[in-house]
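Risk register update: the risk of archive-format incompatibility is retired. Evidence:
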Amino acid sequence: MTDGGIAPLKIGPLVFDLPAVQAALSGYSDWPMRVIAKRLGAPYTLCEVMLDKFLLQVRQRKRTRHFLWHTDEEHPIGGQLMGAEPEQFAAGAVRLVEAGFDVIDINFGCPVKKVVGKCRGGFHLGQPQVALEIIRQTRQAVKAEIPVTVKMRRGIDDSQQSVDHLYQILEGCLALGVAAVTVHGRTVEQRYIGPSKWEFLRQLKHDFPAMTMLGSGDLFSAEDCLAMLKQTGVDGVTIARGAIGNPWIFQQLRALLQGEVLPGPPGQAEQREILAEHFGLAREIYGDQRAPVVMRKFGIKYSALHPEHPDLRLAFTRVRTVDEWKQVLETWYRDDGPGCFPAGDLHRVQGDVTPGGGSPLEVS
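Archived output:
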């Protein structure tokens, strides 16, 4: 138990001292991002969601190897699956275990139209029997010691039928041996617009006390995470957009849970150190040609912690080469000035990241 009265997070046989995990983020939660989060206190991270049919066909080619790439320091690590057919889900789960992932996470939460339109992601919340068959076959396909978890939203929409379907799926999760569920407080219909209903999460945890439940939605600071834990009673939080460009959120939450004062934002020297470290990892996996382009979106997010955010953000958008990346760091982080906390409201309004869904991985 932490000083703040929050118990460690348990997912099957795994026990984490911090009840917070880094979510699966399409286009973001690759090996470099996960490693940086781990080094800054995240006890558990998930790779970006993969389509089951893509996973069954992908090979360890230079351009695609990063999807299954992980290293020893990351473990335990979760692999997230999304698809339409129970059989492919199960086969994809086996592939992830063979690749070395420690947990299989089933995505029933993605609200992106092109995903739902292909009977994937959040679509399954509207067909409980199919959803439960996916869970059943996936659970049977991997060894008992591999936890199977499920990511979902609070329903397709705000109708009573959606609530009934969600409860039916959660009851099935308990019966089928699901180790934990993550529930986002928005509906599929909402996508990323409007507030996440934390009171709904509180009711769910009250109604399913035996279920290890993580909450998600509107977690942009360590204070948000602590508030969700205390207000809803969930066992843990899954941090999505709030972790992009701000891996310090895990350190900050750890401090709050230990009864300490919220640490200040990292100074510019520390930001530069982590940016250089993150970029170095990206060069390892993507090479010098791709890494600068891949890292632009991360630099843009990191820039929110800099007091001259608008101009720095613009500078990151123009990066094309390794030398240009280094030049941005030398220009904007040459002094050890103070940092700042990112503006949560800015993230909410922009809605420019797709957590745990909307993967571009399509294999024809």
